[in-house]
Amino acid sequence: MSRIQNTFAALRESGRKALIPFLTAGDPTAEFTVPCMHAMVAAGADIIELGIPFSDPMADGPVIQRASERALAHKMSLRKTLALVEAFRRTDTVTPVVLMGYLNPIESLGYRNFVERAREVGVDGALTVDLPPEESGELLPLMLEAGLDPIFLLAPNSGPERVQEMSDLGRGYLYYVSLKGVTGASNLDLDDVERRIRAIKEISSLPVGVGFGVKNAEMAGTIARFADAVVVGSALVSQIEAFQDSPDQAQAQIVDILRAMREAMDASAARDA
Fold first, then answer.
1. Torsion sign, CA atoms 72, 78, 79, 83
2. Most buried of 25, 98, 148, 242 (most Cβ within 10 A)?
3. Is the CATH code 3.20.20.70 the one for domain 17-272?
């Protein structure tokens, strides 16, 4: 079993749900990223999604777009992102790390080079936003051979056949995009999200995480009632932006948000037990 599979198995055993925070590698500086990852784990994160900075992150809203711009201004790259994972692994060999980004940097590095280096530094999976399964024939086998979990996105308009396809090809978990829009949008209908997650789980045996639009502990607690994981990104990255000149304060704000989400999620699970 992969680290991701082990994590979800342990959470199921304890009746808890996964909290998956996102941050962009190198935002606002490379020196901030690894200490923040460790702080996230201490605050209750179960898996970390680490964003690969990219110049045209078309699925992301303005908050994460600006995070990529800040990271790229400091010359952050895919190679340097992998080096940050390697540094994180020196003291944390347990917490899964999923790279989230776009295909161009991976193509530039080379599929095999990417997979081999990712495995070497301790990456557990990758979610490539603009790589649909029908175009993944070259990268997917390399990832599976290396034991890296390919993670796919499901949209609100994904039909049963598409859900089955993603479930058959994917590993680790499925990432449900909770709204038609970009990251950080605000028009989230949790009742509709719940209906769609329950429909997905009738088809797929993979854990399902919900992201895009999760803003606070109350929302995280509600989503934890019906999903296997809560993914939070823009709400955290906005703190980095607000306190980019005060990294300690940015990290403290992130820790406070994650602790509140962890508490709300665990309380929700306890009520449903």
1. positive
2. 25
3. yes
Which of 27, 49, 149, 266 does the annotation list as catalytic?
Answer: 49
Enumerate the domain spans of the chain.
17-272
Catalytic residue among 27, 60, 124, 228: 60
Long-range contacts of 240-245 (CB under 8 A, 24+ apart): 240/23, 240/27, 240/28, 240/32, 240/67, 241/28, 241/63, 241/66, 241/67, 241/70, 244/28, 244/70
**134 counts as catalytic:** no
pTM value? Answer: 0.95
Query: pLDDT tens digit string along 87-132?
Result: 999 999 999 999 999 999 999 999 999 999 999 999 999 999 988 8
Active site residue 13: no
